[in-house]
Design a protein that fits this description.
The structure holds 3 protein chains of 3 kinds.
Chain A (H helix, E strand, L loop, with lengths): L1 H24 L8 E3 L11 H20 L9 H10 L4 H28 L8 H23 L4 H16 L4 H9 L3 H25 L5 E3 L2 H17 L24 H8 L4 H17 L1 H4 L11 H22 L9 H5 L3 H25 L17 H28 L2 H26 L2
Parallel strand pairs in A: 1-2
Helix pairs in contact in A: 2-4, 3-4, 4-5, 4-9, 5-6, 5-8, 6-7, 6-11, 9-17, 10-11, 10-13, 13-15, 16-17
Chain B lengths: L2 H23 L9 H21 L9 H20 L11 E9 L2 E2 L6 E4 L3 E8 L8 E2 L14 E7 L4 E6 L5 H4 L2 E7 L10
Parallel strand pairs in B: 1-4, 3-8
Antiparallel strand pairs in B: 1-2, 4-6, 5-7, 7-8
Helix pairs in contact in B: 1-2, 1-3
Chain C lengths: L3 H15 L22 E5 L8 E5 L6 H4 L5 E6 L5 E5 L10 E3 L4 E3 L6 E2 L6 E3 L12 E6 L4 E8 L7
Antiparallel strand pairs in C: 1-10, 2-3, 3-4, 5-6, 6-7, 7-8, 9-10
Classes of the chains: A mainly alpha, B alpha/beta, C alpha+beta.
């Protein structure tokens, strides 16, 4: 009996200590934010914002680590990136995660935007959140674009070229902005876009986060596990190539920019005025999204009652995909000259875009006018009835598999086989995600 | 069934199939190959989310199977067919023909001569760059790209002359063929048998 | 009659806004000096250039090898005849390769994709550079003194973009 009292006292002491700390932490901002962890299996759609933010943090951490080795000068930029890839221990891991996370963040941000658009979440006094969100999305794309400029390989210099030409061609503020960013040459350019990428843009984005995050933040450890695990798996399967070093005296091959810049690339290749193609039309596209809560004044939340928003949504998706894929297309006839292979017929291009808009808005209008509201179908709820014991054994089995996979990845890292190691790390994180869901299922009785 | 998630997963699967097809099998443009990786990821994401979409919040109605069947047919027709029946491989006769070319600013061997080989032979073209900038070599529709040949370097391209016909050989650096680095590569029919010691 | 309190309040706000005024000229911090003030530097002597030949110069030279290898600081001076000198930026306005003068064709040529410029005006006559709206190579302004020394005194146009 004595022993049990002593034990109880120890647990009580621990509880008191935790209580004490929590009461102190409650004075800070972090504990003022309400974190909501769901206790059921929920649709991942509502968590896209959180996942985007987690990816942002991953980018920050890997980016900071890359800064230890990268040097922003004309002669050393490419060489240090190559050094990170080839010589630094685990450098290839950090660099690949940074690259894939940048692509993932843009993908999640766009998915997040369209989910909020279609589920009319911008309506309930959320207009400011919506506008800051669109601004954040644009900043993310520019930030990613500047990021891969820093490598100074062939593809990066092509992208810098396009960016410089667009900046110069902007009337009024163009030449001044070009002076500020490009300065007196490549050396100035590199360190200025380095500063923009590493500090200025992230700081502006963090400031905008404070105006974009809702008061109740959702967090789901399972989804985060699957996300980070997926990052490691894709990094292992698709390592990013380093490309060829930029030489001022050697010709550049035809390369295609990253997929999120491709719409701009396709627009520029139509040959119309650079400012209109590269700045005005994309700005118009972004503006179309920004004004959605202001043009959609309908009271209903269903898509049927909001033809304008539905039209904007469908036209946005289809236009983005068509321009991105078109940007990838290069005339395969290698006998032609540089410009002829890249040319896109402006009449065909803009004709297709206009057609998409007409079909989207027309279709949305017809849908809202003629579709009948469907009566909610009563189906029997899908019950996942798993015996408690079976569930427990599944969890234990998954934990054993996970420990095995972690061990495998550690061994592979020691042996120097980084690719396999990353694959195993990713799989272990994904298994952790599934374990958390299984545990939630078990405890949700 | 979670309707939003269902539409999203159908959309992703569709995009993934189209992307993989464009990248690997459509043969429309070489630069499309870059989208294969991301399309595969999107396709797998769509397939992975599909069970959650179908069963979350209730059993799915029977009509939800229709788009899935259509997608499966599409996937089989575009990707699956090519996967199960890849193109035939060319078998050579074993005869080797060697050709040496010099590459310079905007010519091969100064006169861009016609090159003639016999069908079925294994052709090895070695190109030495005597110019000031980088060049490449490729026989369109017949051989692979040699890759960058830097000034002073020599690179070899090996391939089997499979189909008879008249083809172009060029330097694939954008603009160089237009400026003159192109010539005719002729594969003629012939009864060539492999003789020993050749 | 305006209320005294309103006057004082508006003076307060006005003085606050006026405090922002000294910060505007500070915007010059962002543009590096070399874009607005060009030093007068000797880049060579006219006798160094054969008639019909060219000379590659770096301007503005800083002595720092990292800066001096920057393509944007490379210029070419062409001597077309005994007393005719033309100086241009070597950065091709198509995709920024370095151009040089070909005597046999009497054209400035870019080795990368075949753009060609007229040496007397810097106007792009052929190749991808001739398809752009801005088709002139930027000029390096030079002076020659009685000893034949060539001094570079400024740049006209945007390097890499045109004039």
């Amino acid at each position: 009996m004595e022993g049990k009292n002593k034990e109880k006292k120890f647990i009580d002491d621990v509880r008191e200590a935790i209580d004490w700390t929590v009461k102190r932490l409650e004075r800070t901002i972090l504990f003022g934010i309400r974190f909501v962890i769901p206790n059921r299996i929920v649709s991942p759609h509502g968590f896209l914002g959180m996942l985007t933010f987690i990816t942002f943090i991953i980018l920050g951490v890997t980016g900071a680590l890359l800064m230890f080795y990268y040097r922003p000068t004309l002669t050393q930029a490419y060489d240090t990136v190559k050094m990170i890839n080839d010589e630094v221990d685990f450098g290839v891991v950090i660099r690949n995660i940074h690259y894939h996370a940048s692509n993932l963040m843009i993908f999640l941000a766009i998915y997040h935007l369209f989910y909020q658009l279609f589920s009319s979440r911008y309506k309930i006094r959320n207009e400011v959140i919506w506008v800051t969100g669109v601004i954040l999305g644009t900043l993310t794309i520019i930030e990613a674009y500047i990021g891969y400029d820093l490598i100074l390989n062939e593809r990066a210099v092509l992208a810098i070229n396009i960016g410089a030409a667009l900046t110069y061609s902007t009337p009024v503020i163009g030449p001044i902005l070009a002076d500020v960013v490009i300065g007196s040459g490549f050396n100035d350019l590199i360190i200025r876009i380095y500063t923009l990428h590493v500090l200025i843009f992230p700081m502006i984005m963090i400031l905008l986060f404070t105006l974009h995050f809702p008061r109740n933040l959702v967090f789901d450890p399972g989804m985060v596990g699957i996300l980070v695990g997926g990052l490691f798996v894709t990094s292992a399967l698709y390592p990013v190539p380093i490309g060829l070093k930029y030489q001022p005296t050697q010709p550049l091959h035809i390369t295609v920019p990253e997929w999120y810049i491709n719409p701009l690339y396709a627009l520029l290749r139509t040959g119309i005025d650079k400012f209109v193609a590269g700045v005005l039309l994309p700005a118009l596209f972004i503006f179309m999204f920004m004004i959605v809560p202001f043009v959609d004044r309908s009271k209903g939340m269903k898509l049927r009652d909001r033809p304008v928003a539905l039209g904007i949504g469908i036209s946005g998706i289809i236009q983005s995909i068509v321009t991105t894929v078109w940007g990838f297309y290069v005339d395969p006839d290698e006998l032609k000259g540089f410009n002829e292979r890249l040319e896109i017929d402006p009449i065909l291009f803009f004709g297709v875009l206009v057609l998409i808009n007409v079909v989207s808005f027309g279709g949305a209008y017809l849908y809202s006018k003629y579709s009948k509201p469907s009566r909610p179908v009563r189906t029997s709820p899908a019950k996942i009835s798993i015996d408690d014991n079976l569930l427990n054994s599944i969890v234990i089995a998954m934990v054993i598999v996970e420990v095995f996979v972690i061990g495998l990845s550690l061994i592979k890292y020691l042996m120097g086989d980084l690719q396999f190691g990353m694959l195993a790390t990713g799989l272990s994180l994904i298994i952790f995600g599934f374990i958390s869901y299984a545990v939630r299922l078990a405890s949700g009785r | 069934m979670d309707k939003g998630l269902y539409i999203a997963s159908i959309f992703f699967i569709f995009m993934g199939i189209i992307g993989v097809w464009l990248g690997l099998y459509a043969n429309i443009s070489e630069t499309f190959a870059e989208i294969t990786g991301i399309s595969l990821v999107i396709l797998l994401l769509g397939i992975g989310v599909l069970p959650i979409a179908l069963y979350r919040g209730g059993k799915p109605p029977i009509e939800s199977v229709v788009p899935l069947v259509l997608l499966f047919v599409l996937g089989f027709y575009t990707i699956g067919w090519n996967f199960i029946f890849p193109g035939e491989t060319i078998v050579g006769t074993g005869v080797v023909e060697r050709i040496h070319l010099l590459a310079g600013e905007y010519w091969f061997n100064e006169t861009n001569p016609n090159i003639t080989v016999t069908k079925g032979s294994t052709v090895i073209v070695s190109i030495t760059n005597v110019g000031e900038i980088v060049h490449t070599f490729k026989v369109l529709q017949v051989s692979d790209d040699s890759g960058n040949i830097f000034p002073g370097q020599t690179v070899e391209v090996e391939f089997i002359a499979g189909q008879a016909g008249t083809y172009r050989y060029i330097c694939t650096i954008p603009g160089h063929a237009d400026l003159g680095m192109k010539g005719w590569f002729i594969i003629r029919e012939g009864n060539v048998t492999a003789t020993e010691g050749e | 009659m305006v209320d005294r309190r309103t006057v004082i309040k508006s003076l307060f706000i006005a003085s606050g806004l006026a405090c922002l005024a000294p910060f505007f000229p500070m915007g010059k911090f962002l543009t590096p000096e070399s874009q607005t003030s060009f030093p007068r530097q000797k880049v060579g002597n006219i006798e160094d250039i054969p008639v019909g030949g060219q000379l590659f110069v770096v301007y503005p030279k800083t002595g720092d090898p990292a800066k001096d290898t920057d393509p944007f600081r490379q210029f070419v001076i062409i001597r077309l005849s005994e007393n005719e000198l033309y100086a241009y930026s070597r950065v091709c306005i198509h995709l920024w390769c370095l151009v040089d003068y070909k005597n046999d064709k009497n054209l400035i040529e870019c080795p990368c994709h075949g753009s060609q410029y007229d040496p007397k005006s810097g106007f792009a006559v052929a190749g991808p550079a001739s398809k752009q709206p801005n088709r002139y190579l930027p000029i390096l302004k030079i002076e020659v003194d009685e000893n034949g020394d060539i001094y570079a005194i400024g740049i006209e146009g945007e390097i890499g973009y045109g004039r």
